[in-house]
Amino acid sequence: MAKHLLEIENVDIFYGDAQAIWDVSFHVDKKKIIALVGANGAGKSTLLQAISSVVHPTKGEIRFDGKSLVNLKPEDVVTLGISHVPEGRRLFSQLTVLENLELGAYPANTRPYLKESLERAFDLFPVLKDRIHQHAGTLSGGEQQMLAIARALMARPVLLMFDEPSLGLSPIFVSRLFETIQTLNEDGMTILLVEQNVHQTLEIADYAYVLQTGTLKMEGQPEKLLSDSAFQHAFLGMIG
After folding, report:
1. What is the structure's pLDDT at 196?
2. Which of 23, 52, 56, 129 could cysteine-pair with 122, CB 3.0–4.6 Å?
3. Same domain? 19 vs 35
4. Of the candidates 140, 156, 172, which is a domain's last residue?
5. Given this model, what pLDDT does residue 240 score?
6. Containing domain of residue 68, as a range?
7. How confident is the model over 148-186, as pLDDT tens digits?
8. Of 141, 156, 171, which residue sits at a domain end?
9. How many domains does the chain have?
């Protein structure tokens, strides 16, 4: 049995000749909320893309439940149990809410549970049931984020990754979003959260890793980081 649910070991990632990630290692344990925090351009999104096999490391290993993800296709990663809510939502705007949700259940092992998964999505986000035949592109920003999360849940993941989920949302939707993340975690979902809203993120996270220009600079319990002078100095502008 794997020691950790997700293990990233000594990973380097390049975009062409430009190196984005330098020798990064961290892990995610089951049923925890783990935060990746850092300024824009720190490499947070790149790491999520590597876990999803959208980009591939030039060095190092990524394992999920003991299985290597490095040479898999993105659809294989989803089938193994990892869903990714990407920055910008990336919904199919010309398709309806229902069609977007059905596409989320494309892994063969999730299709028998389609009805059950839809019911779960509508329990979590009742407004989506009211919008079921509406085109995704006509939803509000908050409703689109709900749909992006619900679509990711349709694949019945073990690990759910969020990339800047609060971006562009009103404060009331941001509060609701963080409540939803906590609810999912309380229901047994493992969460890996990339988020610029450092203060609210650390309020719900069990553990956090701090990235700076592609390297892992700090890690620790949220309360320990918030009381650390180096962390406060580096991220003071992001806290509050």
Report:
1. 84
2. 129
3. yes
4. 156
5. 39
6. 1-72+159-240
7. 999 999 999 999 999 999 988 889 999 999 999 999 999
8. 156
9. 2
237 pLDDT more than 70: no
**Over residues 140-150, mean pLDDT:** 93
- Model pLDDT, residue 19: 95
Q: Are residues 25 and 138 in the same domain?
A: no
In a domain, 82, yes or no: no
**Quick one: pLDDT at residue 239?**
42
Q: Residue 233 maps to which CATH number?
A: 3.40.50.300
Tokens of 186: 């309380």
Q: What is the pTM of this model?
A: 0.93
Q: What is the DSSP string of the chain?
A: --SSSEEEEEEEEEETTEEEEEEEEEEE-TT-EEEEE--TTSSHHHHHHHHTTSS--SEEEEEETTEE-TT--HHHHHHHTEEEE-TT----TTSBHHHHHHHHT-STTTGGGHHHHHHHHHHH-HHHHHTTTSBGGGS-HHHHHHHHHHHHHTT--SEEEEESTTTT--HHHHHHHHHHHHHHHHTT-EEEEE-S-HHHHHHH-SEEEEEETTEEEEEE-HHHHHT-HHHHHHHGGG--
Long-range contacts (CB closer than 8 Å, 24 or more residues apart) made by 42-45: 42/211, 42/212, 42/213, 42/214, 43/13, 43/211, 43/213, 43/214, 44/163, 44/194, 44/211, 45/87, 45/163, 45/164, 45/194
| Same domain as 179, residue 148 | no
